[in-house]
Amino acid sequence: MLLIRQLYWGGHALKVLSKRLLVLLTCFYGLLLTVVTLLPSGQSRLGGWDSHLSPTLQNALHVPIYAVLVVLASLCLRTPRGPGLLGMAGIAIVCFAFGTLLESAQTLVPGRMGSSTDLLLNAVGVLAGGAVIIRMAPRNRPKEEQ
Fold it and tell me: Which domain holds residue 48?
């Protein structure tokens, strides 16, 4: 009963639960992104999902996909004061490095190839996600408790 009350009123248990769910969701999103990115391209049985999308749409999807990744990662590491500039830079670097790793790994997959255009679009998505998080961060910093 106490746990239900804490969950309902937004107590510590809710924060812990929501943080764990966010981390789980972020990990699942990263895994899904990895699997979809590394599926073979074209008409193979294993892959082929991308044959239904135009190359322009495939390229355009890099921006929102990486923006969502940055937002999820930032929310996992949130603090009452927001991620801060250094924290945001770290998240951006890690997310961009993840995208670079996936682009490199695509060169080993039949029908796939990594491209500098994709890397550039990943970077735009990372910056867009960072801008969303910075915009959402509280403007008034909480006062230090004495």
Answer: 18-136
pLDDT higher for 30 or 110?
30
- Cα separation, 95 vs 99, in Å, equals 6
Q: According to DSSP H, which parts of 39-112 are helical?
A: 55-60, 62-76, 84-106
Q: Tell me, yes or no, whether 3 lies in a domain.
A: no
Q: What backbone phi and psi angles, to 5 degrees, belong to 61?
A: -70, -20
Q: Compute the residue count for the chain.
A: 146
Count of domains observed in the chain = 1
94 pLDDT higher than 90:
yes
Residue 28 falls inside a structural domain = yes
- How far, in Å, are 13, 46, 63, 86, 132 from residue 74 at the CA level? 20, 33, 17, 12, 10
